[in-house]
Amino acid sequence: MMTFLILTFMKKKYSKKRGPVQSKKIEYDGIKFASGLEKYMYIALKEANIVAEYEPMSYTLMEGFDFSGNAYERCSNGKGVYKNRGCKKILPITYKPDFVGRDFIIECKGRANEAFPLRWKLFKEWISLHASTLTLFKPQNQAECDLTIRLIQDMRKNHRKNAKKETSL
User: Fold this and answer.
1) pLDDT tens, residue by residue, 82-103
2) 104-106 and 135-137: which strand pairing?
3) 58 partner at 20 to 30 Å CA-CA among 64, 128, 134, 153?
């Protein structure tokens, strides 16, 4: 008597990619935060009595311009017909940081999207040219948010010490 074993392999189920990571929008203190990490940073700043505004302004990193040439391409999302999409006004590249204080800027970034690294580099260049006394922080988790608070407090403490030394000279 022969026994036949039939082995069935289960197909591995693959989930469809749903695009970039979507952070959960959260409202707290009447403010609509783009992520839970931003809310955490807001609470940490408030508890440490560090004054900062949430998304107070946009910075123009690159001015818009008129493109008068031909450009054969699809839409920017990769869909649509491949055709001449030239002769258009190109919008400026802007950046809006999460928190701005008198001597710092904080950008809470859990997982960056594809465009963020370039925009962050352009923003660093803008800061180096226009506001080099500001300190940039980019915490990516709650522990780094807590460390950012300590660093701001230490930075301000050292600034006060140096200011006292200069006035006593």
Assistant:
1) 999 999 999 999 999 999 999 9
2) parallel
3) 153
